[in-house]
Amino acid sequence: MVFSLLMALVLAFLIGWVSQRMGMCLVKASEQLLAGRPTLFVALTSCGLFGLLLAPLYRFSEVSLPLYSPGISYPLLVSGGLLFGVASVLNNGCSVGTLTRFACGNVNKLFTVIGWVLGIVLWYYMRMMPEQKTLLMPEISNRHYWLLIGVVALVLIFLVAIQGNKHLVFSSMLLGALTSALYAFEPLWTPSVFFYDVSRMFWQADMAISARRIAVFVMLLAGMLSFTVYRKNFRFEAFTPSKAGVHLLAGILMGIGASMMLGGNDSQILLVFPTLSVASSIPMVSIATGILVSLWCKKRFTN
């Protein structure tokens, strides 16, 4: 029990450190993609696939990763992904990107988290129905694993062909390994799942978040903050009502979008997209489309 907790805390800290080092943010990656530098975008969206390369080890250890595909209609997945992508650009950061910037000293990003929780609560009371997940892969089949190897090989060949940043590629592979390992010790560690369970406390009286999960989340932030201090990049940005209001609105929209597709971009990258099915690819493609189109419009109308 103590060993399991210690491993979860260490892995969470390392994930925070590597995420901050990578500049892990889908909005930032999309900006670089539009500028002709696709390395971060490809590496980031592929890190969940990299993590699944350890599947034989998990099978030997009798550990199942919580991979799933949203059991809802395609229109809801598409609209939720697009809304989440647009809101992420408004927020200037996705779920993890929000936390990395908060760890850099931007206190206004805290309102994104508050808005995210409020958005989930709002969606729940608008829909008045429970959210469901359809588990697709309690175990990773041999067929899926070979398909995974093929996709990862194509990704690596592409990154080598464009002569991408080798440090980013290595960090992405390391991040994939760390995140998949953390699922073995704490299956509910991702920020979007944490925010969702905080939201459930508003309508589910017996809902409680364990001290273990809170400690893992705090260590994730501690890892981000530690790297920021190490690189001397900490820049305190004081509370500004106008900026906080924008982040609050963006957070509400992100929370609604995440509720519609059953998971924020972190869960989509690490748990949904790696199943490599058509249904599980729709949210990721929709999020990326929403971000890219919003960035293009933002650039076009601000110039």
TrEMBL record:
InterPro entries: Sulf_transp_TsuA/YedE (IPR007272). It comes from the Bacteria. It holds the Pfam family Sulf_transp. This is Sulphur transport domain-containing protein. It comes from Pseudomonas moorei. The lineage of its organism: Bacteria, Pseudomonadati, Pseudomonadota, Gammaproteobacteria, Pseudomonadales.
